[in-house]
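@channel sequence for tomorrow's demo:
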Amino acid sequence: MSLKSNIHPENLPKHIAIIMDGNGRWAKEKGFLRVFGHENGTKSVRTTVESCAELGIQNLTLYAFSTENWNRPKLEVKTLMQLLISSLKKEMKTMQKNSIRLNAIGNIEHLPASVQKELLHVIDETKNNTQMTLTLALSYGSRDELVNATRQICDKVKNNIISVENIDETLINQHLYTQNLPDVDLLIRTSGEKRISNFLLWQIAYAELYFTDVYWPDFTNENLYEAIINYQKRERRFGKTSEQLH
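structure tokens (generated this afternoon):
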């Protein structure tokens, strides 16, 4: 019997973020090149996106390519970019069928022109979809995002558009890539690693963190359900005491 039946629909995370880790190790353990792991990881992306849409998750953000990933071997980077283009083309129908809106965050202008073109095409085609927002973090680094936001705010202060007294959390949020997204409720990382890796540092301030040993290519809808059930068992206090909540 599926774990899905144990999920309480009234207590779903509004925003799930996933660090999809372990593709390379999964391939290596099977005697294949790392790129084989990335190819197989796309199946887990499809399963996860469809499962989240079915459950009624409003926002899903996937860490697809970090600013640090540019330092990987050239062949691996090239393959990842080709995979991104083919996945976007393949998954357009699924996104339309499930009314999923595509969004992207990060230094998009650093991506190859062919990737930017396909990405912007799918974003435009799905812009009126309302069921779920799927955000791909591409050429993304959270520190980089915070530096950019700080520069923009400083520029506005310098030009008397805003005063220093106006700087608060809301204003900072408005200058982040994720300005139209709610804070992350549940952050999942696969492959057994227990670190954040420069991902959504501001947005996960009160997120529940869930780490699983499962490599990303082996991550199924049941693994997703397990993470959500674990989330639903936790008491989210946001700095308050248990007594204040009950």
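heads up for whoever presents: The first helix runs from residue 23 to 29.
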